[in-house]
Amino acid sequence: MGRKLLTEHINVPGIDTFEVYRQHGGYRSVEKALKTMTPDEVVEEVKKSGLRGRGGAGFPTGMKWSFLAKPEGVPRHLVCNADESEPGTFKDRHLMSRLPHLLIEGMITSSYALGANTSYIYIRGELLYVLRILEKAIAEAYANGFLGKNILGSGYDLDLHVHPGGGAYICGEETALLESLEGKRGNPRNKPPFPAVQGLYARPTVVNNVESIAAVVPIINEGGDEYAKLGVGKSTGTKLISACGHLNKPGIYEIELGVPVEEFIYSDEYCGGIWKGRDLKAVVAGGSSVPILPKELILKTAAGESRLMTYESLSDGGFVTGTMLGSGGFIAMDETTCIVRNTWNFSRFYHHESCGQCSPCREGTGWLEKVLHRLEHGHGNMHDIDLIVSVAKQIEGNTICPLGEAAAWPVAAAVRHFRHEFEWHVTHREEAARPGAVYPGKAVLV
Amino acid sequence: MESTTAPVKPQFSEAAKAEIARLLTHYPDDRKKSALLPLLHIAQAEFGGWVSPEVQDLVAETLGLKPIEVYEVSSFYTMFNLKPVGKHVLEICRTGPCMLRGSDELTANLERITGAKVGETSPDGLFTLKEVECLAACGTAPIVQVREKYYEQLDSPEAVDAMLNELRNMVHRPLLPWEQTGLQHTQQ
Amino acid sequence: MAKITFDGIEIEVPDGTTILNAARKIGGDIVPPAMCYYTPLKGTGGKCRACLVKVSAGSAKDPRPMPKLVPSCITTVQDGMVVENTTNQQVLDVRKGIVEMLLINHPLDCPVCDQAGECDLQNFAFEHGMATTRYEEERRTFEKIDIGPYIQLHMTRCILCYRCVYTADQLTEQRVHGVLGRGDAAEIGTYIDNIIDQDFSGNVIDVCPVGALTDKTFRFKQRVWFTKPVNAHRNCENPKCSGNVVLWYKGKDVLRVTARKDEYGEVKEWICNTCRFEKKETSDWTIEGPTHIERSSVISANHYELPVVNPQVIADMPESTIRDLEQNPPLKLGR
């Protein structure tokens, strides 16, 4: 079992209270940073750690921080992206509800590094109950002098607030999130300007995922170099993986990056294999947006090497035979899963969640869903299969924000790896339209 | 058509007003619009689980916004009900990971038990069924959200019954933190 | 100043100029189309994706190409930037795709649409689109609604460019309409049947690139190409109104009044609702003379400017036509 940097104390009774959290070493990173380090030194440690954004894109957090503009006299903000909505991803909800003080501690240390005096946690509206937990914890942090004026006598002031969304996946995109935080529709902004220059209220802003901010705590406590010793290559540290779908033990696992996918799925330490004694058919490894891979390609790369849970290994083979680590939303599908139905379901999701601002996404996501609905329900034609690939291509890369790609990739990958299953839905319409119907053959590998 | 009785203009309770005042301190003075989503949540809780045009106008007035600025936002986010709803809104997750663990069957069962189709309210006015997208609880799928509570692993008739019975026996929705403070305040 | 190369043409423009406006300075066929961007309205652009171009060199300092196509309407130039528009096949293919996307939910009811003949979407589709559609699904439809006494909203035709929302925000005191809902269910609306009744609300008709917002006083009166546009002005009482308009005549009757637009369909000066809707007599106005209409416009087809065929926009012309054209070259008018 690898080291647990974030969730070591998650099962300690009362760990959601300030007192118990403090007894287990909580808020040490704040003391260390505010009393012994300059803000730039904190940034430097995070850079050294090699931490990559845990929300999905995997952009180096330290580098993102160093892009923050610092014009004289203009307030800066840190905003925590707790709009966890990517299907298959549920790690942040778990972390925040069980270890609220870990996020708050990370917010204080990170805000100090960035010179922000007002920071926000933007949490998806559905998680109002978690917002209550966080607000209670924030009140405790204020009461104990870790928030407010002159924290620990350092002269550093910080106010921290939690802000609820209202039900919109798109607000996980950082500029849509900022629009939403300003009380507007969650329409992503055109970039440039980037948030680091003009973010919340047109002020320089950093937006980071919950898990990224939580990871700052062990990084400061143990040092960036120590953190970077965990993991493999450029995939340093630990990562929370939300495992779901047809697994014996779905749940949240903190893994050291580098665990083989096969071990993660089958070992009793992690997911304990596929439920009901069935065979694995396919995996969506990093949240619904990333390309689906058939069993053979998720366990081993096209070159026959064992596939690891790292940013690099999962993307080995590009989009032809690889996928992405993404947000760590690991969705396993057993042999009874209908890929066409699942692809339609995901397309319906993106259609439902498109903000409607730019034309390729607004029109294209609906088109994809409608054609996939027809295919799944026994009204498809052969040319529809090429059509959805073509429409997905027309969306990809041409939209304001990455939702376009998120909608296009799953469709393209499903057809790439499971084309025969789509064709079977056309040649066996009646059979395919029956509830629970599954293509009887095997995936054809490219 | 003209209505014969003028609608009574809704007003926030004292507890809600206190909560709104607290929330407004979170944002710069010239950025009160930021409080729009939090206020819509309060309004929905205060006024029977949905936000009527009159309620949205009240929110606009409270924040000094044009009413259209509120309508644009309330219609963008899926959590705000723009039509009257039953006593409990069952928000059933229908996205991939829940579908893999039986959300289609769950929806069918809830439709059968409550007598309401998705998008409708049951004849007894108790339940409104609403399909929603991923609620970030895929590990305990399938799931239903009712107000601030998640009912997870609803993959057995017993689990579904337990949820429905709990809701049927609920006289008043659970008080929210700011309502409890308000209550203490009035009791003193 | 920044020197850029656009489709092989070099031009120097002030820093901060957008790629689109730099291209407009060059003019002609190389200018990218714009369905949502509108110079007089702050904040417009970036949405329709019609003007996407390839930046094959970012700047002299950093000559790497930009990885994705960029919206030329909101991307500012850098010194040494190299941009490809009509010279890049990927750009043209993507643009064809954008036309397709904009049309899948469009009713294609041009024969009964008042905007036909001066419709940006019609022109865009004609120049860049395909003659057929691959879309077999049901189209999105809405009921027509009257928003106030003068304006009709035909949401089914809308392409959600947001121009009318910016217009109401920036020109009128109290915006009452906006974009409601989201995704492809998003619509322009007032939510509770509020009427749009503001001094300058009529300008939303002029900025609308399609027939979604039309002038009720002109509804079904005449096809635009059968009317004659004439420049005119009056001393308007409203201090914010320029009083400079175009009167659209049929015979002796003024059928409608609009603001004056430039060659890219952008309003030069806003006009008030009184000028637009209530001054329909020649005696209300001082006539200046015929309005210049772009030679490629269908509006000029039936009157004082002789028909001009632009061979570049007609693909696969029959041999006989090409011969005819060579023997009787079309008259070149205008600039």
From TrEMBL, chain A:
Gene Ontology BP terms: cellular respiration
Protein family per UniProt: Belongs to the complex I 51 kDa subunit family.
Species this protein is from: Solirubrum puertoriconensis
Enzyme class: translocase
SMART domains referenced in this protein's UniProt entry, alphabetically: NADH_4Fe-4S (SM00928)
Purpose: NDH-1 shuttles electrons from NADH, via FMN and iron-sulfur (Fe-S) centers, to quinones in the respiratory chain.
Annotated protein name in UniProt: NADH-quinone oxidoreductase subunit F
EC number: 7.1.1.-
Pfam families (UniProt xref): Complex1_51K, NADH_4Fe-4S
InterPro entries: ComplexI_51kDa_subunit, NADH-UbQ_OxRdtase_51kDa_CS, NADH-UbQ_OxRdtase_suF, Nuo51_FMN-bd, Nuo51_FMN-bd_sf, Nuop51_4Fe4S-bd, Nuop51_4Fe4S-bd_sf
UniProtKB/TrEMBL annotation, chain B:
Residues the record lists as binding [2Fe-2S] cluster: 93, 98, 134, 138
GO molecular function: 2 iron, 2 sulfur cluster binding; metal ion binding; NADH dehydrogenase activity
Cofactors, names only: [2Fe-2S] cluster
Keyword Cytoplasm: no
Gene3D superfamilies documented for this protein: Glutaredoxin (3.40.30.10), NADH-quinone oxidoreductase subunit E (1.10.10.1590)
Comment on bound cofactor: Binds 1 [2Fe-2S] cluster.
CDD domains hit by this protein: TRX_Fd_NuoE (cd03064)
Entry superkingdom: Bacteria
Keywords of this entry: 2Fe-2S, Iron, Iron-sulfur, Metal-binding
Family: Belongs to the complex I 24 kDa subunit family.
Protein name: NADH dehydrogenase
Native organism: Solirubrum puertoriconensis
Taxon lineage: Bacteria, Pseudomonadati, Bacteroidota, Cytophagia, Cytophagales
TrEMBL record, chain C:
Domain 2Fe-2S ferredoxin-type: 2-89
Molecular functions per Gene Ontology: 2 iron, 2 sulfur cluster binding; 4 iron, 4 sulfur cluster binding; metal ion binding; oxidoreductase activity
The keyword Iron belongs to this UniProt entry's keyword annotation: yes
Keywords assigned: 2Fe-2S, 4Fe-4S, Iron, Iron-sulfur, Membrane, Metal-binding, NAD, Translocase
Domain 4Fe-4S His(Cys)3-ligated-type: 90-129
Cofactor(s) the record lists: [2Fe-2S] cluster; [4Fe-4S] cluster
One family name in Pfam for this protein: NADH-G_4Fe-4S_3
Keyword Transmembrane appears in the UniProt entry: no
CC per GO annotation: membrane
Domain of life: Bacteria
Subcellular location as annotated: Membrane
Family: Belongs to the complex I 75 kDa subunit family.
Protein name per its UniProtKB record: NADH dehydrogenase
Organism: Solirubrum puertoriconensis
